[in-house]
UniProtKB/TrEMBL annotation:
<dbReference type="InterPro" id="IPR001891">
    <property type="entry name" value="Malic_OxRdtase"/>
</dbReference>
<dbReference type="InterPro" id="IPR045213">
    <property type="entry name" value="Malic_NAD-bd_bact_type"/>
</dbReference>
<comment type="similarity">
    <text>Belongs to the malic enzymes family.</text>
</comment>
<keyword id="KW-0560">Oxidoreductase</keyword>
<dbReference type="InterPro" id="IPR012302">
    <property type="entry name" value="Malic_NAD-bd"/>
</dbReference>
<dbReference type="GO" id="GO:0016491">
    <property type="term" value="F:oxidoreductase activity"/>
</dbReference>
<dbReference type="InterPro" id="IPR051674">
    <property type="entry name" value="Malate_Decarboxylase"/>
</dbReference>
<keyword id="KW-0479">Metal-binding</keyword>
<dbReference type="InterPro" id="IPR012301">
    <property type="entry name" value="Malic_N_dom"/>
</dbReference>
<feature type="domain" description="ACT">
    <location>
        <begin position="12"/>
        <end position="86"/>
    </location>
</feature>
<dbReference type="InterPro" id="IPR036291">
    <property type="entry name" value="NAD(P)-bd_dom_sf"/>
</dbReference>
<dbReference type="InterPro" id="IPR002912">
    <property type="entry name" value="ACT_dom"/>
</dbReference>
<dbReference type="InterPro" id="IPR046346">
    <property type="entry name" value="Aminoacid_DH-like_N_sf"/>
</dbReference>
<dbReference type="Pfam" id="PF00390">
    <property type="entry name" value="malic"/>
</dbReference>
<protein>
    <submittedName>
        <fullName>NAD-dependent malic enzyme</fullName>
        <ecNumber>1.1.1.38</ecNumber>
    </submittedName>
</protein>
<dbReference type="InterPro" id="IPR037062">
    <property type="entry name" value="Malic_N_dom_sf"/>
</dbReference>
<dbReference type="InterPro" id="IPR015884">
    <property type="entry name" value="Malic_enzyme_CS"/>
</dbReference>
Length: 485
């Protein structure tokens, strides 16, 4: 077994070695024979007869871990005492904490932070509720809300299991854009209850990022919340994904010398992400989009179980192609996967037009692995951070919310999303553009600032920015400055 470049975690094996019988060479061979990669060795204890060593090994998945543990445990004189997974270690106790901005060192401080001083601030807000923006965390805080119904491509795993993703999104908001974000996982999947819960918590927040809520409920939930709240509500899996996808595709078609108007685009997975990506591509000029879900292509004239698909059938697939993914992909220039693991086969790519562009964006396991697709594609992208060309909404949501919070936008308009997509695409210069670099890295610190500036510009142009004094540029386009607020 060889370990693919998609190795995504490392384990620490704590081993007790009998000095007489155990040989480290045999342990190293056992690990490498199973495709593992030893990256560190530490001696944690040693006496006359035994040594305890911690060896850190890059692994692919749990099956691979089990294989290595078995192989190492079979080496004479070796006892596996403990196995710890670095990713799990990082999650112990969660990934976030609350940090006060002001220390309380004496009675005076206490009386300002808390009673009685705080009461005057409460009354000031009571008299003029908009003061909450300047006198509370609302100004810089958003809620990351999920019901756990479509967590990555893992499906309906429930609110507790969704927390690590939502905590992760909150970490990214803070680290990349200085936005404070709270993960909120709701124990209901009822549309009306979710709407009511989000409305009830909204006073504390300057914006709502909806996350991993399955379609079609997500459309109604977002529409109603946008209508009924005066703060921006943004379903990341729809619009964050669509923005980044368009950014990547603008650069990919430039690279292969095609235009969006002439491309045949197949979108697989007509859920939250698939529908929003398709709408954004249509707005950007794509004419020939064919949507495919589990039952095949979505075609005009059919009756579908929800309004979103009915709309989709009427606005896509101009040639009324029907059939499976393998059938409708013939001659396609672009494949966009926002469905689930392993949906796309090499034979499907071989049916595509010259210079195929494949964006296999399902997380954590894409529609096809880059290793498999590589020999047949011209441009390959996934949603993951461990391959080149990461098309992931993390390139969008921090900058979008930085922008809307800074100009106090009441909503996120189509113009703002389009501006964000163009800003992300423009980070990659013509000289830099290549098959392996169609989209900037998540760590390119100019991304957030460029998205923020584009979003603010478009918010004023769309008339949704409520801050009368236009915010200054925090860092300036192209600068690599970490934004902290
Ligand atoms: N890279 C990114 O930034 C990004 C962003 C959002 C979503 N995604 C990924 O896209 C996928 C969908 O997310 P979503 O929020 O739209 O979920 P969703 O539940 O709203 O929609 C998923 C859709 O895919 C369809 N589907 C599932 N398996 C399929 C298959 N084998 N063939 C055809 N269709 C299939 C489902 O029927 C559903 O309509 C997930 O894997 C998610 O991780 C990636
Ligand atoms: O969470 C991610 O990495 C991207 C996206 O929001 C997803 O649901 O897959
Ligand atoms: Mg998501």
């Amino acid at each position: 077994m060889s370990i693919p470049s998609g190795a995504h975690t490392s384990i620490i094996l704590r081993l007790e070695l009998d000095k007489e019988t155990a040989s480290f060479g045999q342990i190293a061979t056992a690990v490498s024979d199973t495709g593992g990669d030893i990256i560190a060795i530490d001696v944690s204890r040693s006496d006359k007869t035994t040594t305890v060593r911690d060896i850190t090994v890059n692994v692919y998945d749990q099956k691979h871990t089990d294989l290595i543990v078995k192989a190492v445990g079979a080496v004479p004189g070796v006892k596996v005492i403990h196995v710890s997974d670095q990713t799990f270690l990082l999650h112990i106790g969660g990934k976030l904490e609350t940090m006060p901005k002001t220390p309380i060192k004496n009675r005076d401080d206490l009386s300002r932070v808390y009673t009685p001083g705080v009461a005057r601030v409460c009354m000031a807000i009571h008299e003029k509720p908009s003061r909450a923006h300047s006198l509370t965390i609302k100004r810089n805080t958003i809620a990351v809300v999920s019901d756990g119904s479509a967590v990555l491509g893992l499906g309906n795993i429930g609110p507790e299991a969704a927390m690590p993703v939502m905590e992760g999104k909150a970490v990214l908001f803070k680290q990349f854009a200085g936005v404070d974000a709270f993960p909120i996982c709701l124990d209901t999947q009822d549309t009306e209850e979710i709407i009511a819960a989000v409305k009830a918590i909204a006073p504390s927040f300057g914006g709502i990022n909806l996350e991993d809520i399955s379609s079609p409920r997500c459309f109604e939930i977002e529409r109603r919340l946008i209508e009924e709240l005066d703060i921006p509500v943004f379903h990341d899996d729809q619009h964050g994904t669509a923005v980044v996808l368009l950014a990547g595709l603008l650069n990919a078609v430039k690279l292969v010398g095609k235009s969006l108007e002439q491309c045949k685009v197949v979108v697989c997975g007509i859920g939250a992400a698939g529908i929003a990506c398709s709408k954004m591509l249509i707005a950007a000029g794509v004419r020939n989009i064919i949507g495919v879900d589990r039952a095949g292509a979505i075609v005009r004239g059919e009756t579908y179980p929800n309004e979103a698909w009915q709309w989709y059938a009427e606005h896509t697939n101009p040639d009324c192609l029907s059939g499976t993914l393998s059938e409708v992909i013939r001659g396609a220039d672009v494949f966009i996967g926002v469905s689930g693991p392993g949906v796309l086969k090499v034979q499907d790519i071989q049916r595509m037009a010259a210079d195929p562009i494949v964006f296999a964006m399902a997380n954590p396991t894409p529609e096809i692995s880059p290793e498999e697709a590589e020999p047949y594609v011209r441009v390959m992208a996934t949603g993951r951070s461990d391959y080149p060309n990461q098309i992931n909404n993390v390139l969008c949501f921090p900058g979008i919310f930085r922008g809307v919070l800074d100009c106090r936008a009441s909503r996120v308009t189509e113009e703002m999303k389009l501006a964000a997509a163009k800003a992300i695409a423009a980070v990659v210069s013509d000289e830099e553009l290549s098959e392996y670099y169609i989209i900037p890295s998540v760590f390119n610190q100019s991304v957030v600032e460029r998205v923020r500036e584009a979003v603010i510009e478009a918010a004023y142009a769309s008339g949704v920015a409520r801050k009368t004094a236009r915010p200054d540029s925090a860092a300036g386009a192209g600068k690599t400055v970490q934004i902290t607020r």
